Amino acid sequence: MKLSEVKSKLNELKTISFQLPNGELVPNHFHVTEVGKISKHFIDCGGTVRKEEVANFQLWNANDYDHRLHPEKLLDIISLSEKILSIEDLEIEVEYQADTIGKFGLDFDGTHFLLTSKHTDCLAKDQCGIPVEKPKLQLANLNNESCCSPEGNCC
User: Fold this and answer.
1) Alpha carbon distance 7, 16 (integer Å)
2) Helix, strand or coil for residue 104?
3) Could you tell me if residue 15 is inside a domain?
4) Is residue 127 part of a domain?
5) Checking CA distances to 18, which of 56, 69, 120, 126 falls within 20 to 30 Å?
6) 1 half-sphere exposure, CB direction, 13 A CA radius
7) pLDDT averaged over every residue in the chain
8) So what's the pLDDT on residue 154?
9) Residue 152's pLDDT is what?
10) Could you tell me if residue 23 is inside a domain?
11) Which helix (H) or strand (E) holds 90?
12) Which of 129, 123, 147, 18 is nearest to 74 (CA)?
């Protein structure tokens, strides 16, 4: 989900909620302690130099049960971050504390912002000798007539 999409959704909401991939909701007394831009400059295992940038939200649970983050306040924080940090319309990555800091993608289901699982990947499979996954075919969908009919020339 891009930053512009988050802002659009926040303009429509009265409250903000985040849901973890396991279905649990982040406690509603969370705080967004950071909005930032993360730049990653790296070399993949095939030797290709790459750059990635994401907008980052850090969610944190405090023992502050009397204050709730409202959509207009988060919009203000995002606006200030865009201005001061020159954040473009980037994909959002969310950090949330579990056993360790987890990094999540972000989506929206009409009610909750959904923290989506992220996975590592090899960006240079062709350089590493990693076999490309073959497409799975169902035998029922194959057209066997051309090969297996008497006129098919398969024998």
Assistant:
1) 12
2) strand
3) yes
4) no
5) 120
6) 23
7) 88
8) 60
9) 59
10) yes
11) none
12) 18
3-state secondary structure 19-44: ECCCCCECCCCEEEEEEEEEEEEEEC
pLDDT of 144 above 60? no
Cβ atoms 139, 148 nearer than 8 A: no
- Of 145, 32, 39, nearest in space to 153 by CA: 145
Other C-beta atoms closer than 10 Å to the C-beta of 18 total 21
Cα angle for residues 73, 76, 79 (degrees, 5° grid): 150
Domain extent for 69? 3-121
Tell me the sheet residues that pair with 116. Answer: 105
Residue 3 has pLDDT above 90, yes or no: yes
Query: How does pLDDT run across 5-60, given as a tens digit for each residue?
Result: 999 999 999 999 999 999 999 998 899 999 999 999 999 998 999 999 999 999 99
Residue 65 resides in a domain: yes
Confidence check: pLDDT of 116 > 90: yes
Is the confidence at residue 67, as pLDDT, over 80? no
Whether residue 89 contacts residue 2, with contact meaning beta carbons closer than 8 Å, is answered with: yes
Query: What is the predicted pLDDT for the residue at 141?
Result: 65
How many domains does the chain fold into?
1
Residues 115 and 49: their CA atoms lie apart, in Å, by: 29
Q: In this structure, which amino acid lies at residue 118?
A: K
Distances (CA, A) of 27 to 86, 96, 103, 105: 30, 12, 17, 18
